[in-house]
Amino acid sequence: MKVRNIAAGLILCMATAGCARYLAEHAEVSSNVNGRELPISSVETKEPKIALTFDVAWESADLEEILDILDEEEVKASFFVTGEWAQSHPDLLKEMAEAGHDIGNHSQTHRSMTGLSEEEKKKEILEAGEAVETAAGVRMHFFRAPYDNYDDEVIRTAKALGYETVSWNVDTLDWKDYGKAHILETVKKEGGFENGAIIRAHAGTRYMADALQPLIWAGKEAGCLWAPLSEMVRREAYHLDVTGRQIPDPEN
């Protein structure tokens, strides 16, 4: 019966102007490009939205300052935290959540996921999810692989557990400790102020907190709207191009 209904729908859509809508309604999410699974690295959008994301795994002495600056500038960011960090810093985690920032899954122990068995991959993702939900009551929807080490199985495992895997297309390189000016120049040079950019930063680096406010100002001056991933990334009806850019399927 299901096959018959789909066939009838296809005949109807070919005979009417509703073809595009019918196909959109039955489109599936696809992160597979040329036979390989890819994470989302940026988003195709007509709006000048860009996302600032932070990896939080070990050091986070500057996190209070980062949160204060984001609050002052009325900017919502996305924080990918490990389960171990969440368990050690429940108050900071709650502060993030209460401020309206996205919280994403960065695994339980920050191990390279590609070297793990399927069961170990599941355990890393599930334990981090449980840790964050227990500490802050937040159920996460985005996953970022530690060290950006992913393969087909990592992305499929995350998808099966309810997560969209998100990477980035602009790295601040804050982890190299080259200085505040270098962070700003890198983001500008690499297209951080272009529609749909996903910028990666870290908590606990030497210069990120100092560079944060000037970075936010520069984005605003460029006409950008800083947005959390939850306001940019689609969770259905999309496909990716070869760079991992998320392309919305035709609207219903």
TrEMBL record:
Gene Ontology, cellular component aspect: membrane
GO BP: carbohydrate metabolic process
GO: which molecular function terms?
Answer: hydrolase activity, acting on carbon-nitrogen (but not peptide) bonds; metal ion binding
> Which residue positions does the secretion signal occupy?
1-20
Sorted keywords for this record are: Hydrolase, Metal-binding, Signal
Give start and end of each NodB homology domain: 48-227
Q: Which InterPro entries match?
A: Glyco_hydro/deAcase_b/a-brl (IPR011330), NODB_dom (IPR002509), Polysacc_deacetylase_ArnD (IPR050248)
PROSITE patterns the UniProt entry points to: NODB, PROKAR_LIPOPROTEIN
Residue intervals passing through the bilayer: none
Q: Gene3D superfamilies this protein is in?
A: Glycoside hydrolase/deacetylase
Q: Know the name of this protein?
A: Polysaccharide deacetylase family protein
Q: Which species is the source of this protein?
A: Mordavella massiliensis
